[in-house]
Structures are given as C-alpha cells and as structure tokens.
Write a structure and sequence with these properties.
The structure holds two protein chains of two kinds. By secondary structure, chain A is an alpha+beta fold. In chain A, 22% of the residues lie in helices and 25% in strands. Chain A starts with 10 loop residues before the first helix and ends with a strand. Chain B starts with 11 loop residues before the first helix and ends in a 7-residue tail after the last strand. Classes of the chains: A alpha+beta, B alpha/beta.
Chain lengths: 128, 437
C-alpha cells in the first residue's frame, strides 16, 4: 500500500529510449486515464503540458469517459499532484522504470487529481 | 434509538442529548445509527493504549456494547468513553485469549476486533470467526527490521487468503511487543472504519491496509508547539502529542464546545458551553500530566508565533489555513496541516529548511477560496440557510495520527511524506505511489 516510489531515473537510464506511460488517477481510485507517449514526443516537454494533452483527448471509450468525469469532479476544488507533490519539470523528473510481462521497459508517471478536505466549517446547505 | 429510563418511560431528555451529540454523523447519506447502537462487539487486546483508543472512539461513534478481553486498559480513556456515551456498556474481562474455553465470553457478538500481539489469540479468533461466520477486524502496530508501522485487515468467512499469514503474530504467547500511541490512534480509527462498514453493510477493505516507515531515532528535544484549533483534529493531535511525550504545547481556539461536537471531540463530555482550548488543555494535563496551555483567541495574521518551533494546523476552514501557511513561510516555522471530511483526510507538512511549497500552495487553497467567494455570492441570493459538514470521529483520529507521526519523522531527521487518506477507496493511504504491476 505504501511502497514509496522514489525518483528512479538516473542519468544512465534516462538516456535509454523508452515510451512513457502517464496515468491520471481520480482521487484514491485504483485506475486512471492512461496516455502513452512514444520516445521523442515527451522528453523535453513539461509534465504539465503532457497532462493537458492527455486531459484534452477526445477519442475516449465509455470507461475512459467515466474516469475523465471523475477526474473533473476531483479537480473542481482539487489539484493534480504527483506522489503528493507539486507538478513541476518534465515527466522524467517523476518517472519510475517498469516493464511489461513481456519484458518491454517503459517509464511510468502516476498523477492524482486530489481534492483537499477542509473540515467542519459552515457552508451553504446547497453545497452538501 | 428509543431510550427508556428506569421507570420504563421514554427518556426524552436523554434521547435529545443523544440526537444532538450524534447530529453531525446522522446527516451522512445512508448512515444507519441503529446498526451501531444495537451491535455487540468483542474486542481482544494486550496493549492497553490500543484497545482503549478503540473503545474511546467506538463510544463516540455511538456503539453501545463492547466486551473486552485484555489484561489492562487505560483507566482514564475508558472513563472518558463511559462518560461520553450515556448508554455505553463495557464489559472488561482481565486476561489473555489463550484457550477456546473462553469462547463464550463473546457469545452474541456481531464481530470481533483483534488488537492483540500474540499468535494464539489471532488463530483462536480466526478459527471461531470461520466456524461461526462472524467477521474479525485485525489491527496491530509492528516494529521489524528497522521499520515501524501498522496493519489492518478484515477477515470474513471465505477470505482464507494469503494475507492471513501477514496478520498473525510470530510469537504465539503474550509477551513484550511494540506499542505506540500515535500509530495506535490510526489503527484504532481504521479498525473502527472497518467496524462501521461491517455493521452498516458497507464494503470493507479487500487488501491489508498498511503503513510503514523507518524506525524513529530518539529525540531529547522538547520543542515548543502550537496547535491551532482545538476541535476534532486538535483533540486527537493533542492526544497524539501526549502519547509521544511532548510537554510544551499550546492550544489556541476561540470556540466553545457545542453538544454536536461530542461525536468526535472525545474529551468534551463535561465541557459543553466552555472554551475548547481550555477544556482540551485541562483534560490532557489531568490525564497525561502534559503541562499544556490554552489561548482563547482566533489565529490571525497578527498572532505571534516566533516562540514556537512548529505549528499544527487543525482548523476547519481554508481561509485560516492560508494565513497559517503564509505565516509559517514568512517566519520559517514547521507547519503540519491537516484537513478532514466524513470519509477522507490529508496530512501535509511544510519544512522551511527545504524551501518547498506550503500546504496552501501545494493544495491550491487560494484558488478554492477565490472560486468559492464568487460561488457564495451567487448562492447567498438563493439561500441563507447554512449547515455544518457531516463529520465522524474516525477520519479525525486517523488524520491527526498521521500529522503527529509526520512531525516525529521530521524530528527524527527523516523526510516525512504527505499523506492522503480515504476510507472508501481501494488505496486508502497514499504516501507516494505504488509501482504498476
């Protein structure tokens, strides 16, 4: 549950050519919206730009559409965070290296749409 | 929910008090207070703090019947639990669960809560649970290979999974074990979340809920701490700081205790109408000889913080959180910020030495407040009625535990992580991300 993925991309690994798997997860959900970037398309790009691209995608299937709606709900008063931290820099700053069962290596960046909790303050009833 | 007095008449005064006390949770959609009030729960423990913390928060939630088998309990916490809930009925049997002959103690229980640290008890309860089809919520703290943490798992008949190996203690018979009141607070809160889910027909966690971090090094420092807000989060942060043996603590809050606070602000049963900060400080000083102080005022931009080493943000609104973040950044103070709802919470830490983002910057509180102001103006025209958010004891107990633990981690020279908790999600505790598999 709490396996902390440290920033695992050292210089040697970063020079290898691998695709990037970006997953945008609504809140604490187990699965999110996945976008795959091929080598050459993401390396110099700020992560923020890649997220904008992923969230603007139109050709979503029904399941992806539902996840996107969940993400939008979280972002209404929430923020995109990567491992509980602000998103700055490129995707490689946050990436960990993983591989498929077939042994294909890729970089993985999980980003969560987190809505912070406030407490018990008085609010207009219609908000609840 | 109906209550009779000794003459067999409906005790309307008690009933109104009970409704008022529980009002903030009764408003949660799908909430079934009767399921909690009519349940009988069997608890086994060998750590007086952990079992007592579960008893305390169960009483606050409105659970009325507990049968506890444990060599000892913390008398002050049990006394508080009994005063908090007039209908609370605790049967405490002193001892260990080491033989099936003790089975009948737990006759009629809807579920068992196993907070013990000896394998014989774990196995006996699992066997009984499997045979009788009664669930077991298992929770414990551990220290192993230079790490400390906790695990919670719910066993239901049919869940004879590999996970069971991870929740059975290595040592079969009772003996010395790792105890930690701060982590125990979190375990008690999560075990109660699972209890509530079982009793209300909700979904319990499929996986072991776990948390671990490096062992803390001893710190002889006694930092001067300010806890802003003496409500639900403040109460459990204060309790955690007391367990962690912090002595120089000041609580600041201008609010008075209201009866609707009592479902989660566990130390205020005898303080309705009086200052929260004063009541909390007095109670912790009385129980733990803490030596804390109270300031009966709001935290504002003018509040002096220079004498404090760290500040705990336990307030209930983003506006004050923004002021706290800006103040701590300007004054170079450690800030541990918490926030809760009825089902979720976050603990976010700002360490000025690292020059990172404050909680307000990281979580975008200013944007939320700005957007809300526009929204409020629009909605104010339509409705003037206001209601407080629903709130329960568990998320406050859990979030406060993570807040105090984060500060201990920092004092120990390690780098604490921001923690996001959600009671109904598969990944309940986010401290970073799991690698994909």
């Amino acid at each position: 549950m709490d396996t902390a993925a440290e920033k695992a991309v050292d210089v040697g690994q970063a020079e290898e050519v691998k695709p990037l798997v970006l997953e945008i997860i609504p809140g604490h959900a187990a699965e999110g919206l996945i976008e795959i970037f091929q080598p050459g398309s993401y390396e110099g790009e700020p992560l923020r730009n890649l997220l904008d691209l992923a969230l603007a995608r139109k050709n979503l299937n029904i399941e992806e559409q539902l996840i996107l709606e969940d993400i939008s709900r979280q972002l209404d008063g929430g923020k995109l965070l990567c491992r509980g931290q602000e998103i700055t820099g490129t995707a490689l700053d946050f990436a960990v290296q993983e591989q498929t069962e077939a042994g294909e290596k890729y970089y993985y960046v999980p980003v969560r749409a987190i809505r912070p909790q406030e407490g018990g303050s008085l609010r207009p009833e219609s908000w609840n | 929910m109906a209550q009779m007095n000794r003459s067999g008449e409906l005790d309307t005064g008690n009933l109104m008090m009970s409704h008022g006390r529980l009002e903030r949770q009764l408003r949660i959609e799908g909430w079934n207070q009767n399921a909690l009030e009519n349940a009988k729960i069997g608890v086994v423990g060998d750590d007086d703090q952990l079992a007592s913390l579960y008893i305390l928060s169960a009483s606050a939630l409105g659970i009325n019947k507990l049968v506890v088998l444990s060599p000892a309990l913390t008398p002050q916490l049990v006394e508080t639990a009994e005063k908090l809930n007039p209908r609370f009925n605790l049967v405490h049997i002193e001892g260990f669960y080491t033989h099936p002959v003790l089975d009948e103690i737990f006759d009629g229980c809807n579920l068992f809560v196993d907070l013990s640290h000896y394998g014989l008890c774990n196995k006996l309860l699992l066997e009984k649970a499997c045979r009788e089809g009664v669930p077991v919520v298992r929770g414990f703290c551990f220290e192993l290979d230079g790490e400390q943490g906790f695990k919670v798992f719910t066993y239901l008949k049919g869940r004879e999974w590999q996970e069971l190996y991870e929740i059975i203690s290595d040592r079969n018979l009772p003996g010395s074990h790792f105890e930690d009141g701060v982590l125990g607070n979190i375990v008690a809160g999560i075990a109660l979340e699972e209890t509530k889910a079982l009793l209300m027909g909700g979904r319990v966690s499929d996986e072991i809920i776990s948390y671990r971090r490096k062992k803390l090094s001893e710190s002889r420092r006694q930092p001067n701490l300010l806890v802003v807000g003496a409500g639900a989060l403040g109460v459990f942060v204060g309790l955690g700081l007391a367990f962690a043996d912090f002595k120089r603590v000041t609580f600041i809050d201008s609010d008075n205790v209201d009866v609707t606070n009592l479902n989660r602000q566990v130390f205020f049963h005898d303080a309705v109408g009086t200052s929260k900060a004063h009541a909390l400080s007095s109670k912790l000083n009385q129980i733990f000889d803490m030596g804390s102080m109270a300031r009966l005022e709001d935290f504002t931009r003018g509040t002096a913080v220079s004498s404090y080493d760290a500040i705990f943000d336990c307030v209930d609104n983003f506006e004050t959180r923004i002021i706290l973040s800006e103040t701590c950044k300007h004054e170079g103070k450690v800030l541990v910020s918490g926030g809760t709802s009825a089902e979720a919470g976050q603990a976010v830490i700002f360490n000025p030495v690292e020059n990172g983002l404050t909680p307000a910057e990281l979580l975008g509180f200013s944007d939320i407040v700005r957007n809300r102001q526009v929204d409020t103006l629009r909605r104010a025209e339509a409705s003037c009625s206001h209601q407080p958010d629903p709130s329960v004891v568990m998320t406050n107990q859990i979030t406060a535990g993570f807040m105090v633990d984060a500060y201990r981690v920092l004092l120990s020279g390690q780098r604490p992580k921001n923690i996001f908790y959600h009671s109904t999600s598969p990944d309940k505790i986010l401290t970073g991300e799991r690698n994909r598999t």
